[in-house]
Design brief:
Chain A is mostly helical. Chain A has 14 helices and two strands, in the order H-H-H-H-H-H-H-H-H-E-H-H-H-E-H-H. Chain A starts with 14 loop residues before the first helix and ends with a helix. Chain B is an alpha/beta fold. The chains are: A mainly alpha (377), B alpha/beta (378).
């Protein structure tokens, strides 16, 4: 490995350093896992109780919208907060197996289902397996740009990239449907031709079946059954549910983009990651993700994906521990001169927008000062 | 039908299989009780028997009958307890007689501390009176009818004049305590004999048995001290039995004791069908011999695979090498796609470099290596 990176970000680590890095980070993980126990059980149960309470209160407030529209507004906010908690701090983290040790069937990665158009089975395959194993390896991690956006110079420019900021806004709006469709898009279920030799774990009929049954249930729930239960206030509840789903979509999409696509996040090639060591895998996870700083409530509402770096390093550690762990991880990153990408929500979001717009133009290989903004490993 | 419909509604409205599951986080009941797999049982008594044994008395909440909860003497229940935020199940023998359940709706579990174990040394001081635990329906076939004619009814058992010999070693006394106190007075035609081996002053639960012997002519008790009397021998058996060929034998105690005693009876001319053994408790990890071949059983295929000790293969590789269908993803312990249920046995996690517990738990097949015989539900 002869390639060097911009001085500001230090040099590539050698094998020995990577081995030591793995030992250091395994230490951080072991220390956290040793503490995992009733504190975590109480925490997640508390969050689930909060989510249930917000959901029930939100649905009641929507119906009370006939008294005053303020109720309706509050109902939308409560319901979207409940959906955000369900998807982020509960669903995402439970589906990573963070609470499997509790042996609680209601919070187990093998049985949990969330309030999202994407079935949890499909999510686990695409997100937990593909994205977390092959983070930011172009060609293997389809989360990088979701096959819709050009976000690095690894992809050649096409005409449709010109309006990709619009595409991004549409994706954000329909985010849960984008996620639900993600695996099927990769498998070319409805259109396109399957890649020769692509190894698939699931059969296409199964994919379709699960997609239709999950999405039907979700549509029935928010746009048929709950509105019908409201009787004469059918439309108000339907619109309230729609608004809550949209707010949730914008929030989750924005947080996820901020964790993965700000400037200074690295991309990798398949070749660089062939037979990689554990240390190298860790190294790639730090370089490939970005954190957000903020208050405690903010971390909770992001499902602690504000600590995307720690989440990528330790996906099975209960997420509410990431904020503490990030202090140690930053010390370790500094020790090896590894770029640790963190910033406020607004600065990270601004840089996401910058990236989406920058690559919408037919710029070729990035060079000069831009190479530091859009680094290739 | 109605149940199916409400469950479907619950799944659609709340993405939970049942409404109970949706509201579970608000409840303080044990999770298995809420999910309907188990019954609730309240701790009403905790009694130390000796240095390494104690008894828990549990009151069954709800009805005591065939449909809800009952047991056959000699059976065990699985107890679900919460330790440091995680729900853990362990099987324990019921030591109390059936009459106790009928009278005050309680059962007693007499538990031996497996000092290397995770639950038994901890449980005695961790549970409190009034606490709710989950218990499974009674399980196991170490029951009186097991060695009697097939489909034996109360009547036919009473008419058979068989001799029943119970051999207990140490904490193996627990099922016999329940069997004897429940059955001796009901079957006057059967001659019951108990040989109870333990170290001096370590014979637990024996007061009731002594009283029973005084009361009942068809029961004789032999308290034997291992230091003084040694292991179970032909002399011991011949001293209590008149017609061995017509006897049923039940043995419960440490593994080596059961093996030796069984061999002894076979040598003395008894058929295998007349001998009944009970493996009580779980093998504690300290007794595990790491240098023997291990058997991996996959419940999905009913396939038993023997792996030898040099082959440090992961469960995923073992499954794949033997054409057992298994889900997998990253193969390096990250993605959890290969997560499966270990029903029993100990595995080594090659990533965290730790050994698992002995009981039921979720493990990742791609980084787990079997250390003992294991049963895996892929």
């Amino acid at each position: 490995m002869m390639a060097t990176l911009d001085k500001k970000f230090g040099k590539k680590l050698n094998e020995q350093q990577l081995e030591q890095l793995a030992i250091d980070l395994d230490g951080v993980k072991a220390k956290a896992m040793n503490q995992v126990g009733s504190t975590d059980e109480r925490y997640i149960k508390k969050i689930v109780r909060l989510q249930r309470t917000l959901e029930i209160a939100g649905r009641i407030c929507l119906v009370l919208g006939f008294i005053s529209l303020y109720f309706w507004g509050v109902g939308v906010l409560l319901l979207s907060a409940s959906k955000i908690l369900d998807n982020m701090e509960i669903g995402h983290n439970v589906l990573h197996g963070q609470y499997d040790w509790m042996n609680d069937p209601t919070l187990n990665s093998q049985t949990f289902e969330w309030d999202n158009a994407c079935s949890s089975e499909s999510w686990k395959r695409v997100h937990n397996y593909e994205h977390h194993t092959y983070t930011n390896i172009i060609g293997k991690d389809r989360d990088f740009g979701y096959g819709l956006l050009r976000l690095s110079d690894d992809f050649s420019w096409r005409l449709r990239n010109l309006w990709q900021f619009g595409t991004y806004l549409v994706l954000s709006t329909l985010f849960q449907w984008g996620i639900a469709f993600h695996e099927m898009a990769g498998e070319r279920v409805f259109f396109g031709k399957r890649k020769e030799g692509r190894e698939s774990h699931v059969d296409i009929e199964q994919l379709k079946k699960v997609f239709y049954s999950k999405s039907t249930r979700q549509i029935l729930k928010d746009y048929v059954i709950f509105p019908i239960l409201a009787g004469p206030f059918f439309v108000m509840v339907l619109l309230g549910n729609l608004a809550a789903n949209l707010l949730r979509n914008f929030w989750t999409s924005t947080i996820i983009f901020c964790g993965h696509f700000p400037t200074e996040v690295y991309t990798f090639t398949e070749k660089e990651c062939e037979n990689e060591s554990r240390g190298h895998w860790y190294y790639r996870q730090i370089l490939g993700s970005a954190n957000l700083t903020g208050a405690k409530w903010f971390h909770i509402l992001t499902g602690h994906l504000s600590c995307q770096v720690e989440h990528h390093l330790f996906p099975e550690v209960p997420a509410h521990r990431y904020v503490e762990m990030s202090k140690e991880v930053q010390v370790i990153a500094a020790k090896y001169g590894i770029a640790y990408n963190t910033g406020s929500f607004f600065s990270q979001y601004a840089s996401v927008v910058q990236r989406v717009i920058y690559f919408s133009f037919p710029v070729g290989k990035v060079s000069g000062k831009n190479a530091a903004l859009y680094p290739r490993f | 039908m109605l149940n199916d419909l409400t469950n479907k509604l619950s799944l659609t409205l709340f993405n939970n299989d049942t409404f109970k599951a949706y509201f579970a986080p608000f409840s303080t009941k044990p999770i298995a009780v809420l999910m309907g797999d188990m019954h609730a049982a309240k701790v009403v008594g905790i009694k130390t028997e000796n240095n390494d044994m104690y008894s828990l008395t549990l009151a069954i909440s709800g009805k005591v009958n065939e449909q809800y909860f009952t047991f056959k003497p000699g059976q065990y229940v699985e107890l679900q307890v919460k330790q440091n935020g995680s729900y853990i199940k362990r099987p324990f023998t019921i030591s109390s007689p059936l009459s106790q359940l009928q009278q005050d709706k309680t059962i007693t579990l007499t538990i031996k501390k497996q000092f290397e174990g995770r639950i038994t040394p901890w449980l005695e001081s961790a549970v409190e009176k009034g606490e709710l635990l989950g218990i499974s329906p009674a399980k196991g076939d170490f029951v009186l009818s097991a060695c009697l004619p097939q489909n034996a009814t109360e009547q036919t058992i009473k008419q058979t004049t068989k001799e029943v010999i119970f051999i207990a070693g140490g904490s193996g006394i627990t099922p016999f305590h329940s069997l004897l106190l429940s059955h001796v007075s009901h079957y006057p035609n059967i001659k019951f004999t108990l040989l109870y081996y333990a170290r001096a002053n370590q014979h637990v639960l024996h007061e009731n048995l002594v009283a029973l012997e005084v009361e009942q002519a068809n029961f004789s008790l032999r308290i034997l001290q291992s230091e003084r009397d040694g292991h179970c021998s032909a002399t011991h058996i011949n001293a209590v039995t008149t017609d061995l060929s017509n006897s049923a034998v039940y043995i419960c105690g440490p593994n080596s004791m059961m093996d030796n005693t069984q061999a002894l009876f076979v040598e003395m001319g008894l058929s295998q069908e007349a001998i009944h053994l009970e493996q009580f408790g779980l093998a504690s990890f300290s007794n595990v011999d790491l240098n023997v071949a291990r058997k991996v059983s996959f419940t999905t295929t009913n396939k038993d695979i023997v792996v030898n000790e040099e082959n440090q293969q992961t469960l995923l590789t073992i499954a794949e090498d033997n054409y057992v269908p298994a889900k997998y993803g990253c193969r390096i312990g990250i993605c959890q796609e290969c997560k499966c249920k270990k029903v029993s046995g100990v595995v080594y996690n090659s990533q965290t470099k730790t050994y698992s517990d002995t009981g039921e738990e979720d493990i990742q097949a791609c980084i787990s290596v079997p250390v003992t015989d294991v049963v895996i539900n892929l």
